[in-house]
Write a structure and sequence with these properties.
The chain contains eleven helices and ten strands. The protein has 382 residues and is α+β, with helices and mostly antiparallel strands. The longest helix has 30 residues.
Amino acid sequence: MSGTVGVLLFIATLIVMVMIHEAGHMTAARACGMKVEEYFFGFGPRIFSFRRGETEYGMKAIPAGGYVKIAGMNPYLTVPESDLPRTFGAKPAWQRAVVLSAGSATHFLVAALLLTFSFAVLGVPGAPTTTLQSVSASAVRLNGEAGPAEKAGLKPGDRIVAIDGNTIAKWDDLQNYIRARPGVPVTVRVDRGGQLLSFEVTPEQVTDANNHPIGRIGVSSRVTQNKEALPAAAWDGVKGVGVVIADSVKGIVRLFSPSGIGKVLSSVTRSQESTRSSGGGQALGLVGGARLAGQAVQTGQAQSLIFVLVLFIVFLGVLNLAPLPPLDGGHLAVLAIEKVRGRPVDPRRVVPVAAFVLSIIVVLSVVVMYADIIHPAANPFQ
């Protein structure tokens, strides 16, 4: 299947998640008796809108997210006296915390549902076999040139039975043999529909996450699938989201650390050769995520695409809870400060902090996106 399908599904997922996220805020606000004035996708000039009850719904010209306008949240807007009891600030702190957390909560719920579907309907990937699922392009070159296996003539569906006369019964045996021989020609014997064929393949050299040179021929394994009963799938889905949340927290801490920011900024100045041969450790933005989704689709395994989507859905949910204004986590941090101080924080004093943090996030996002374009990460599915 074309990688374009994965890219389009990635983009569609982000758009849908934006609206689900904002719907979480809106639903929680209404449940707490707050007035919801607007629910929009995008920012800037209105493209269209309509009103249902007291809420205006619509779309704006810049598709860079979405928002829900709750009465009283903007400190620079005057609220009619009749609406004061229904403003955000008029409600108890616990209700405001629920509203602020509801957006990210939808990310974790959607991710758990996706994993549950994957485990129950598509199956849990089991042991990899020596049958090839895909044969793909080079990880070293950026022009889409065929990889070593594809150049040699290997095809999806081929079952590798031997390398250099050594019988191959496990996928790990194949990987270990290839990884240990970068640049060294090997003879791969395959079973193609009952016919035994031999191909000479020269593994290209890449580097692993520890910067050690390894060999790669550009193939992925076809794995067995074991479907789970719905209760087990749901529980494993919840546990899976928990694992991704923990990994996302670690990743965000690393990203915003001085060394992490330095690494992101230096990623655009590294030599193309060192980046092309790098096998891990590179931050991914939306461009990299879209490419990763396309590569997942090319494996022919829907579970790979779902896992990529879950990673980004959960990461964005966790990032939104970081204790930095203007993120929801920043507003939660202000609530915590108010609780400790015993008096409200003037929201106008938070605005400069929010503007500074937002500028840092925008700069990092642009740098990561630029790095995604000029130094694409290696395909992790090969």
